[in-house]
Structures are given as C-alpha cells and as structure tokens.
Amino acid sequence: MMRVHVIVRGEVQGVGYRYTARLEADARGVRGWVRNRRDGTVEAEVEGAPAAVEEMLGWMRQGPPGSRVDEVTTTETAPVGDASFEVHSTA
C-alpha cells in the first residue's frame, strides 16, 4: 500500500478535473481525495496498491479533455486507510 500527495498545475480548474479524477480513481480502486486550491492548482492524496497509484498518477498527468496539465509534483506519505475517493471543496 502506498500514498502520495499530489499538486497539479496548469489549466485544471473549471474543466471537471476533480469529478473526473473521482471516476478514474474508482475505476482503479484507489482511495483518497481531491480538491481545488485558491492558487489555481488541484491538490490530491491517492492511496492504494503501487501499480494502481502509478496508473492514477499517469491519468493525473494528462487530465480530462479540456484541461492542460503543466506540472505534477508528488510526495510519498504514510497510508491512512481512506474508505473511498472523495471530492472536497476548495482549500
């Protein structure tokens, strides 16, 4: 089990990024959360089997149609055992 904290920079707000991320996370069986930040980035934590987390990160580097991802930074963190993948409000 692994968990990563993710910051996504680019045109990632107002394009359905968070809601599509939830669908993609559910399809891969990863848990965690995603939210917009006031600085225009998207922040997330993704937890699951290493291969599933890497697949999710691959999707996050592309984003949904209409988005433009310029940079994705990740930091490994300790797993916390989230029960699902949630969309949170803006931080």
From TrEMBL:
<dbReference type="InterPro" id="IPR020456">
    <property type="entry name" value="Acylphosphatase"/>
</dbReference>
<dbReference type="Pfam" id="PF00708">
    <property type="entry name" value="Acylphosphatase"/>
</dbReference>
<keyword id="KW-0378">Hydrolase</keyword>
<dbReference type="InterPro" id="IPR036046">
    <property type="entry name" value="Acylphosphatase-like_dom_sf"/>
</dbReference>
<feature type="active site">
    <location>
        <position position="36"/>
    </location>
</feature>
<feature type="active site">
    <location>
        <position position="18"/>
    </location>
</feature>
<feature type="region of interest" description="Disordered">
    <location>
        <begin position="61"/>
        <end position="91"/>
    </location>
</feature>
<protein>
    <recommendedName>
        <fullName>acylphosphatase</fullName>
        <ecNumber>3.6.1.7</ecNumber>
    </recommendedName>
</protein>
<comment type="similarity">
    <text>Belongs to the acylphosphatase family.</text>
</comment>
<dbReference type="InterPro" id="IPR017968">
    <property type="entry name" value="Acylphosphatase_CS"/>
</dbReference>
<feature type="domain" description="Acylphosphatase-like">
    <location>
        <begin position="3"/>
        <end position="89"/>
    </location>
</feature>
<dbReference type="InterPro" id="IPR001792">
    <property type="entry name" value="Acylphosphatase-like_dom"/>
</dbReference>
